[in-house]
């Protein structure tokens, strides 16, 4: 179901089960210039896995998921999906996820708290 991954490297020493991402909608589309060029970043940094054997509904697209039965993130070159909103990923353990992302070389910035007491990485980066 998933593309075969290379063996875990040093950046994967923290287990994903300790902090996981989720996607709020049934699928999330992200418009990119080159699907093949950016797909490895989503796999390496976010822990997504690329589906194989399931052709995307649109050309020049890739379907990625965190787990087999999970919601999809679709990388596509097809325009018309752009909005003024940034994609949002949710996690129940934001401090742990920040540590994992930092270990993978992603600068996520400071964790903030909004007026409702929700902890987030709220600003644009």
Distance between the termini: 33 Å
Number of strands: 8
Strand residue percentage? 15-25%
Radius of gyration (CA) equals 15 Å
- Under CATH, the topology of the largest domain can be stated as 2,3-Dihydroxybiphenyl 1,2-Dioxygenase, domain 1
**Uncertain stretches:** 5-16
The biggest sheet, with number of strands, parallel, antiparallel or mixed sense and barrel status, is: 4 strands, mixed
Instruction: Give the helix/strand class.
Output: alpha+beta
Mean pLDDT: 75
Q: Trace the largest sheet across and list its strands.
A: 2-5-4-3
CATH homologous superfamily annotation of the largest domain? 2,3-Dihydroxybiphenyl 1,2-Dioxygenase, domain 1
Instruction: Quickly give the CATH architecture of the largest domain.
Output: Roll
Provide the succession of SSEs. Answer: EEHEEEEHEE
| Helix coverage percent | 10-25%
Could you explain how this protein is built, in words?
- With 125 residues, the protein is of the alpha+beta class.
- The protein folds into 2 domains: 20-89, 2,3-Dihydroxybiphenyl 1,2-Dioxygenase, domain 1 (Roll), CATH 3.10.180; 92-125, no CATH class.
- It is built from 2 helices and 8 strands; from the N terminus they run E-E-H-E-E-E-E-H-E-E.
- The strands form 3 sheets. It has a 4-stranded mixed β-sheet, covered by helices on one side. Strands 1-6 form a two-stranded antiparallel ribbon. Strands 7-8 form a two-stranded antiparallel ribbon.
- Strand 4 and strand 5 (72-76) form a beta hairpin.
- The radius of gyration is 15 Å and the shape is globular.
- Mean pLDDT is 75; it is low at 5-16.
């Amino acid at each position: 179901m998933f593309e075969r991954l290379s063996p875990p490297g040093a950046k994967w020493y923290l287990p994903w089960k300790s902090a996981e991402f989720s996607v709020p909608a049934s699928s999330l589309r992200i418009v990119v210039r080159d699907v093949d060029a950016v797909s490895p970043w989503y796999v390496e940094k976010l822990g997504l896995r690329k589906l194989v054997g399931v052709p995307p509904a649109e050309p020049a697209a890739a379907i990625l998921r965190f787990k087999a039965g999970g919601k999809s993130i679709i990388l596509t070159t097809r325009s018309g999906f752009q909005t003024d909103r940034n994609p949002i990923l949710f996690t129940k353990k934001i401090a742990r996820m920040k540590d994992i992302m930092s270990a993978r070389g992603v600068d996520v910035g400071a964790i903030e708290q909004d007026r409702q007491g929700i902890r987030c990485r709220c600003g644009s980066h």
